[in-house]
């Protein structure tokens, strides 16, 4: 939504002087100063812009500012030159009205800057495109060129325009620039030859000497040193903040953009150089025979160089500086020139050369920038003309300039009043006559065709006879004496006679802007602007094409005997044209004011500004503007601005804006005489009323602002809340999703874990079962295999045994038979053959019988001859014992193999022979089958005690080894079984029949080296006794032994040889006796 603002917003002082209350010169100045101090350099008087020169760059010309002011109404924003430029441009574009922008003010007040600002604004807002941009660029770049040639440093302004400029910018119907036309007015050409103290010649001279390349300067025969040139003022050649060299480059670049050809630029520079050279030509007097002095060129070098530059024959020019030819009717009279006249001629030539060059430049620029189409176009004229000048010493130029300003003031008053009047008529408001000062009378004093000052000056110049400035003043004195704006010392009007402030050769004009004293000296000459014909003809003869063009009157074929037009006449004519031109256009005024004389920022010199305010007629301007109504505004913006002051119009008024405004004003009880309703505008008579409205609006705005703030804050909070709510839902949804996902993942992984554990467990269980099953199957197989193995081995053993027995029986039978035979036939053989047969038989036996028998007979079969001796009953019993031992123990007890090679001696103690055992022997009444020392194992600790063991057919006896005292005598029938281990030990338990008398003390646990023999013998006794059962032999590593009441388990374990080689027996507990047998290595 577009925000409607107003000039009235945030005003410093008042933005429009029309609203000043009370209106006086002091309040006017006070307002200007206040605004100036706040860097508000622009203030309006209605539609007129007052511009104060800030003398510093302000940040108010940025592209953003251009955008701000673009397409906005004039009173919508604070005062700005852009507002005026925009208004002018838009009414040109949209309403098809030609515009002119009149910029006035004294030198240094900022006119040229203002004109540039207007042009740059228009360039920025108008159309774009390649062609359009080129045109814009050319129009803008014409400025630096004209400034270089037409501006100079003066005491008032470092870049003072020394010519008047009016530029028409032409636009097409769309508002795009098509081209332009520049008109120049009265260049201050006297500056070329002489500059006031502290001022400079035109910029171009300094720029050329500082900025041109050495090569260019050599071609132009110039020297970089300013001091070499008479026409250049030296005391202020360098100006701070002005870079001549850089500006020279800018100018050359601008000339190129504007469309100057390279040779044209060169020609222009040659002419500038020629002017400098011309200034260096000096003259000396040369006496002639008739007593008069004739001038001669002093040093011809400069003349020569100048002639070379311009292609002029040196002698022609030299002559033109010495002679003057006057043609009258058919006669030609040649007179000599004295030195003074020669200098006058030189300077006149320099001035003419330069001013004509300047005019040519303007023409040339116009050629470039002129619109290419002939189509109808709209025009915006920008007038940047020198302002009103009041110097100490005012001459012809000031007179002309002030005349121009007088005319501009006139047109200003006329147009302002006319505009005001037209507006009243347009709006249907009654016109009240306005009192104002009309300067038409002053204009008339100057430009009246019969008795105007300019006309009289021309008359004087044209009059034959002696004409001097004094005769001119006399004439003024006679003719203008009665004029109330004219004063002079010699005025016939007696009231001025005594005015001693008026010097004799001066006259004073009371301009609208103040009184100005003019010195008449030079008026006639300057008006004549005389250039001797010889000089213009010499110029025409030049080879230089440009110089030839500049002096067309030098063409001998077009000799014009008429006097050339005077400067005053020409100026008056061009001002007249300008005024007529301006009158056809819609005027826009920019009135520039200079705040101080020091070119300094922030200084506001009251008196200086007051003076300018006066002569610019600004107070008048305000009065005219306020004469009827101080303020006016179209109904729409007025209603828009104040509608909040009335309930009926707020917030919307439905109906015509005018009615709304009427309702509003009635509601506010504004007195009817204070306001008038025009057709499209409301007119407010007093600023007071306006301020009343503004004040009410301000109060109301505050309330509204609070309301808006309240609603806005509510809206903002609610929006924010809704947004947060929405966001919260989104966040929550996302979070929930995230949490659920996380939970799901957890559950999933837990499930997977439990599953995997369960599966693992099941699998392991299954595996265990399967393994068990398999093991069972394998065990069955193994058991079956073992069983079958055992069965088979048992069967094999039985079969082998059977075979062996059969064989042994056969063998023994054979032996027996052999023995019987040998016994029988021994007597037959004894003599010789007995031995042979015996040997043979033994050999046969040995060879044919199996290993078993051999192994049974290791100790005896070495010599056959013993067999015969040994095979006694005794021996046979021994064999049978061995055989029996084999049956009992072979492959069952590890001790057995050792016993095989040992002969079963039986009585190891030789008991019958040893007297030591006499007593014992006698105690045993039967034959002792075996006597040996055994270890009786102590039932309590497992330690062994040596005992003599005697075995008879009926008993076995245990006796003390030393004393031979019988400890126990057990009848063999009481022995039910013997238990031995499978190992190499000699332990054996003799188990007694339960209930028998011997069994009272329990079984015997004994240990003997001859275990095999003892058991075998015990077994044999049992086997041979018919009354007894066979003795049972248990071979097992674990058997029970009855010790008194307790049954103790004797357990055999194999110990590693590391723990010693001896067999140890230990009582482990009540029930266990452990025998550790070292494994054989
Ligand atoms: N609007 C402005 N902003 C900044 N400086 C300005 C402005 N107007 C003028 N000036 C300064 O004042 C000087 C004189 O201005 P200028 O336009 O040449 O004066 P005039 O043409 O009226 O003689 C400029 O060179 C510039 O330094
Ligand atoms: Mg200027």
TrEMBL record:
Record keywords, A-Z: Actin-binding, ATP-binding, Calmodulin-binding, Isopeptide bond, Motor protein, Myosin, Nucleotide-binding, Phosphoprotein, Repeat, Ubl conjugation
What is the protein name stated in its UniProt record?
Unconventional myosin-Ib
Residue ranges for the region (Actin-binding) are: 575-597
Keyword Ubl conjugation set for record: yes
Residue ranges constituting the Myosin motor domain according to the UniProt record = 12-698
Q: Where, in this chain's numbering, is ATP bound? A: 105-112
Subcellular location field = Cytoplasm, Cell cortex
- Stated family: Belongs to the TRAFAC class myosin-kinesin ATPase superfamily. Myosin family.
Could you tell me which InterPro entries the record lists for this protein?
IQ_motif_EF-hand-BS (IPR000048), Kinesin_motor_dom_sf (IPR036961), Myosin_head_motor_dom-like (IPR001609), Myosin_TH1 (IPR010926), MYSc_Myo1 (IPR036072), P-loop_NTPase (IPR027417)
Listed under GO biological process in this entry are: actin filament organization; actin filament-based movement; endocytosis
Source organism: Astatotilapia calliptera (Eastern happy)
Gene Ontology cellular-component terms listed:
brush border; cell cortex; microvillus; myosin complex; plasma membrane
Task: Report the residue ranges that make up the TH1 domain in this protein.
Answer: 893-1079
Superkingdom as given in the UniProt entry: Eukaryota
Q: Name one GO molecular function term.
A: microfilament motor activity
User: Cross-referenced Pfam families, in alphabetical order?
Assistant: IQ, Myosin_head, Myosin_TH1
Q: What does this protein do?
A: Motor protein that may participate in process critical to neuronal development and function such as cell migration, neurite outgrowth and vesicular transport.
Q: What is the lineage of its organism?
A: Eukaryota, Metazoa, Chordata, Craniata, Vertebrata
């Amino acid at each position: 939504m577009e925000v409607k603002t107003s000039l009235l917003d945030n005003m410093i002082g008042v933005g429009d002087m029309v609203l000043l209350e009370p209106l006086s010169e002091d309040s006017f100045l006070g307002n200007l100063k206040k605004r100036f101090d706040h860097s508000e350099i622009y203030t309006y008087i209605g539609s007129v812009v007052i511009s104060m020169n800030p003398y510093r760059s302000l940040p108010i010309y940025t592209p953003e500012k251009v955008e701000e002011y673009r397409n906005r109404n004039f009173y919508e924003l604070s005062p700005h030159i852009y507002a005026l430029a925009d208004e002018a441009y838009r009414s040109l574009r949209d309403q098809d009205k030609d515009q002119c922008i009149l910029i006035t003010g004294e030198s240094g007040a900022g006119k040229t800057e203002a004109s540039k600002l207007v042009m740059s604004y228009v360039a920025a807002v108008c159309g774009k495109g390649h062609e359009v941009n080129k045109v814009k660029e050319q129009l803008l770049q014409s400025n630096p060129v004209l400034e270089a040639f037409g501006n100079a440093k003066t005491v008032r302004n470092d870049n003072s325009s020394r010519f008047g400029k009016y530029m028409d910018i032409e636009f097409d119907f769309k508002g795009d620039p098509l081209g332009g036309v520049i008109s120049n007015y009265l260049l201050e050409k006297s500056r070329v030859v002489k500059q006031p103290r502290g001022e400079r010649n035109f910029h171009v001279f300094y720029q050329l000497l500082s900025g041109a390349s050495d090569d260019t300067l050599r071609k132009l025969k110039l020297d970089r040193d300013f001091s070499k040139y008479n026409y250049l003022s030296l005391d202020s050649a360098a100006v701070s903040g002005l870079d001549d060299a850089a500006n020279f480059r800018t100018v050359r670049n601008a000339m190129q953009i504007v469309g100057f050809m390279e040779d044209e630029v060169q020609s222009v520079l040659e002419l500038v150089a020629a002017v400098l050279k011309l200034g260096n030509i000096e003259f000396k007097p040369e006496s002639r025979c008739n007593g008069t002095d004739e001038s001669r060129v002093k040093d011809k070098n400069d003349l020569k160089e100048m002639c070379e530059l311009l292609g002029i024959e040196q002698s022609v020019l030299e002559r033109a500086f010495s002679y003057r030819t006057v043609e009258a009717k058919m006669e030609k009279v040649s007179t000599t020139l004295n030195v003074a006249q020669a200098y006058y001629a030189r300077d006149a030539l320099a001035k003419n050369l330069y001013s004509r060059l300047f005019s040519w430049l303007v023409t040339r620029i116009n050629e470039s920038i002129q619109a290419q189409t002939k189509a109808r176009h709209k025009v915006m004229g920008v007038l940047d003309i020198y302002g009103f000048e009041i110097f100490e010493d005012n001459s012809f130029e000031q007179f002309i300039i002030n005349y121009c300003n007088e005319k501009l003031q006139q047109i200003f008053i006329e147009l302002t009043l006319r505009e005001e009047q037209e507006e009243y008529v347009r709006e249907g408001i009654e016109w009240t006559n306005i009192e104002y000062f009309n300067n038409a009378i002053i204009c008339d004093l100057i430009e009246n065709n019969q008795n105007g000052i300019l006309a009289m000056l021309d008359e004087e110049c044209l009059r034959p006879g002696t004409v001097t400035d004094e005769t001119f003043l006399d004439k003024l004195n006679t003719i203008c004496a009665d004029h109330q704006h004219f004063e002079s010392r010699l005025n016939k009007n007696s009231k001025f006679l005594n005015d001693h402030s008026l010097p004799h050769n001066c006259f004073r004009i009371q301009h609208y802007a103040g009184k100005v004293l003019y010195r008449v000296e030079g008026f006639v000459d300057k008006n004549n602007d005389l250039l001797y014909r010889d000089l213009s003809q010499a110029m025409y003869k030049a080879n230089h094409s440009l110089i030839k063009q500049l002096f067309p009157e030098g063409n001998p074929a077009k000799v014009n005997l008429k006097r050339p037009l005077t400067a005053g006449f020409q100026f008056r004519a061009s001002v007249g044209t300008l005024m007529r031109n301006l009158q056809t256009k819609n005027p826009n005024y920019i009135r520039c004011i200079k705040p101080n004389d020091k070119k300094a920022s922030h200084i506001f010199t009251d008196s200086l500004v007051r003076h300018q305010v006066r002569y610019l007629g600004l107070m008048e301007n305000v009065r005219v503007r306020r004469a009827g109504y101080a303020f006016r505004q179209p109904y729409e913006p007025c209603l828009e601005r104040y509608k909040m002051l009335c309930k009926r119009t707020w917030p919307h008024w439905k109906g015509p804006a005018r009615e709304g405004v009427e309702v509003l004003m009635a509601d506010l009880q504004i007195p009817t005489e204070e306001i008038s309703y025009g057709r499209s505008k409301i007119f407010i008579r007093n600023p007071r009323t306006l301020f009343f409205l503004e004040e009410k609006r301000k109060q109301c705005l505050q309330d509204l602002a609070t309301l808006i703030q309240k609603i806005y804050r509510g809206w903002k909070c609610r929006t924010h809340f809704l947004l947060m709510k929405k966001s919260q839902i989104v966040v929550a949804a996302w979070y929930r999703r995230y949490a659920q996902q996380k939970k799901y993942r957890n559950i999933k992984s837990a499930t997977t874990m439990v599953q995997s554990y369960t599966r693992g467990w099941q699998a392991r269980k299954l595996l265990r079962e399967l393994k068990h099953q398999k093991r069972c199957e394998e065990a069955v197989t193994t058991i079956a295999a073992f069983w079958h193995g055992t069965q088979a081995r048992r069967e094999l053993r039985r079969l082998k045994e059977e075979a062996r027995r059969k064989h042994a029986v056969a063998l023994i039978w054979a032996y027996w038979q052999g023995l019987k035979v040998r016994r029988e036939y021994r007597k037959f053989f004894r003599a010789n053959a007995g031995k042979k047969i015996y040997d043979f038989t033994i050999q046969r036996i040995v060879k044919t019988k199996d290993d078993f028998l051999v192994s049974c007979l290791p100790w005896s079969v070495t010599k056959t001859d013993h067999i015969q001796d040994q095979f006694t009953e005794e021996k046979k019993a021994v064999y049978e014992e061995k055989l029996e031992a084999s049956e009992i123990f072979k492959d069952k007890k590890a001790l057995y193999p050792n016993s095989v090679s040992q002969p079963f001696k039986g009585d190891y103690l030789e008991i019958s022979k040893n007297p030591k055992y006499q007593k014992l022997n006698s105690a045993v009444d039967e034959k002792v089958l075996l006597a040996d020392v055994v270890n009786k194992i102590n039932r309590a600790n497992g330690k062994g005690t040596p005992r003599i063991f005697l075995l008879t057919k009926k008993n076995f006896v245990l006796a003390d080894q030393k004393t031979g005292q019988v400890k126990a005598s057990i009848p063999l029938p009481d022995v039910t079984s013997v238990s031995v281990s499978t190992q190499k030990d000699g332990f054996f338990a003799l188990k007694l029949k339960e209930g028998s008398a011997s069994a009272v003390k329990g079984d015997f646990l004994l240990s003997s080296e001859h275990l095999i023999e003892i058991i075998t013998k015990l077994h044999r006794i049992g086997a041979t006794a018919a009354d007894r059962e066979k003795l049972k032999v248990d071979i097992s590593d674990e058997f029970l032994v009855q010790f008194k009441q307790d049954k103790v388990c004797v357990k055999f374990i194999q110990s590693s040889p590391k723990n010693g080689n001896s067999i140890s027996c230990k009582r482990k507990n009540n029930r266990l006796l452990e025998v550790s047998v070292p494994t054989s290595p």
